[in-house]
Amino acid sequence: MDERERINRLRWRCTRRAMLEMDLLLGEFLERIFPTLAPAQADAFIILADMEDLELWPLINGSRECTDSVQAEVVALLRNVRVK
Hints:
Blueprint: H1 3-15, H2 20-32, H3 39-50, H4 53-61, H5 69-79
Helix pairs in contact: 1-2, 3-5
C-alpha cells in the first residue's frame, strides 16, 4: 500500500466515527497536525484512531489517563485542536 492510500484509509477511519465530535476532532487533527508528527507519534495516532469512540473519548476528555507515553503526547496534541 502506498502512502496516499494509507492516508486515505486513515482519513476514512478518522471521519466516519460514531460520534460527530470525534469525526470533527480527528479529521481536523489529521489534516493540520498529523503531517508534522514524528514517526513514533504518527504510529501512536494510528493506534488511537483505530480505537472505538467509547474507548478513545475518555482519554481525550481527561477522564482516563493514557498509559503509553507516546500516545499521551498525541492525546495532549488532540486536546489542543480547535475545530473550525
